[in-house]
Specification:
The structure is a single chain. The protein has 359 residues and is an alpha/beta fold. The protein folds into two domains: 140 residues, Four Helix Bundle (Hemerythrin (Met), subunit A) (Up-down Bundle); 206 residues, Translation initiation factor eif-2b, domain 2 (Rossmann fold), CATH 3.40.50.10470. The chain has eleven helices and 14 strands. Helix 7 links the parallel strand 4 and strand 5. Helix 2 runs parallel beside helix 5 and helix 6 crosses helix 7. The chain is globular, with a radius of gyration of 20 Å. The structure holds 5-S-methyl-1-O-phosphono-5-thio-D-ribulose. 5-S-methyl-1-O-phosphono-5-thio-D-ribulose (MRU) binds next to helix 2 and strand 9.
Length: 359
């Protein structure tokens, strides 16, 4: 048994934050660029506004991007059916393209658009109610998947004193609850309910250059009152070397059919260090993040964002003096991953058990 007292963590373990809210007027997007200072929702009343919110990082995180895009399709159908009820299925195509071009790496975006496209193909009458129901289902299924992954991941971890997580994978990055952060929430929920002994301290990387760890993950953990400490990205290997971490838990933006996993830049560094220091490395992601069309991770498109996001203030306007390369994801080879936790089960990840997830 654990002797230390359970901290006064929030009884409902967060899941109070929603990055996306549907209203009759359109999709309200929590502008994550303003957090943690301001909680400000912006209304997107058209599909291109949703695409813009994704491109400019107002909403980010693979599952949340997919859900936003699904609601973007509802807005597109509303517009084109109203303007031209005979040809709306043709006219909506440009909006689907705009949404698909918003960001390249997270496959949940394309998965959600494909699902909405299949729904569109079946429709004969006023499309909005059916498409809205589909977008709501995508949202609800994501939350349910996260809860399930939370339970499975907590089972697998059992006991741990320290967990390191990267980027933001919580309620903000998903429909709610979170993937990697969902596992952390479930572990603490068990401690609170008296059904689990683990009370791990959580270390969150800062996650340069957008600071998803510092601005978002820490904000979510503080609201839950889960004990947490911020580290700069480059402190991670040193922290593991001190024996203070038993598991690294990351999310994913796209998992290739063999288990190679794209996630926030720096994830690969963490996996290399974890292997060297005999620390477990878990990926928590719903099966909507698996791209069965890609045999291996070297085919995953990696987004490179503007160098200006990386260059500090003192170099602005002086790009000729300082080049910058800003890839925002990297690929962790499957050999470095101890477990991929999905809502359909855990794989380790060998090809046979991965293939079973597809069925
Ligand atoms: O650039 P972002 O903030 O969209 O990147 C997000 C991540 O890399 C997350 O770790 C990933 O989407 C998994 S989260 C559920």
């Amino acid at each position: 048994m654990h002797d230390s007292p359970i901290p006064n963590i929030a009884a409902d373990l967060a899941d109070r934050v929603r990055p996306l809210r549907w209203t009759d007027a359109g999709l309200e997007v929590l502008d994550q660029r303003r957090l943690p200072d301001r909680t400000e929702y912006r209304l997107c009343a058209a599909a291109d506004e949703v695409a813009e919110a994704i491109r400019t990082m107002q909403v980010r995180g693979a599952p949340a991007i997919g859900i936003a895009a699904a609601f973007g399709v509802v807005l597109a159908a509303r517009r084109w059916f109203r303007e031209n009820p005979e040809r709306w299925k043709r006219l909506i195509e440009a909006d689907l393209e705009t949404l698909a071009r918003s960001r390249p790496t997270a496959v949940n975006l394309f998965w959600a658009l494909e699902r909405m496209r299949r729904r569109i193909a079946d429709l004969e009458y006023v499309p909005e109610p059916a498409l809205l129901a589909e977008a709501r289902a995508i949202h609800a299924e994501d939350i349910a998947a996260n809860r399930k992954m939370g339970e499975l991941g907590a089972d697998l971890i059992g006991q741990a004193n320290g967990i390191l997580t990267h980027c933001n994978t919580g309620s903000l990055a998903t429909g709610g609850y979170g993937t990697a952060l969902g596992v952390i929430r479930s572990i603490w929920q068990r401690a609170l309910a008296g059904s689990g002994d683990a009370r791990p301290h959580i270390f969150a990387t800062e996650t340069r250059p957008w600071l998803q760890g510092a601005r978002l993950t820490l904000w979510e953990l503080v609201q839950d009152r889960i004990p947490a400490t911020l580290i700069c990205d480059s402190a991670a290997a040193f922290l593991m070397q001190q024996g203070r971490i038993q598991w690294v838990i990351a999310g994913a933006d796209r998992i290739a059919a063999n288990g190679d996993t794209a996630n926030k830049i720096g994830t690969y560094n963490l996996a290399v260090a974890a292997r060297q220091l005999e620390v477990g490395f878990m990926v928590a992601a719903p099966t909507s993040t698996i791209d069965w069309e890609l045999p291996a991770g070297d085919r995953i498109p990696i987004e490179e964002r503007d160098a200006g996001e990386l260059l500090p203030e003192y170099y602005r306007g002086k790009e000729r003096l300082a080049g910058a390369w800003n890839p925002v994801f990297d690929v962790t080879p499957k050999e470095l991953i101890s477990a991929i936790v999905t809502e359909r089960g855990i794989v380790h990840p060998d090809q046979e058990s991965l293939d079973k997830l597809r069925a």
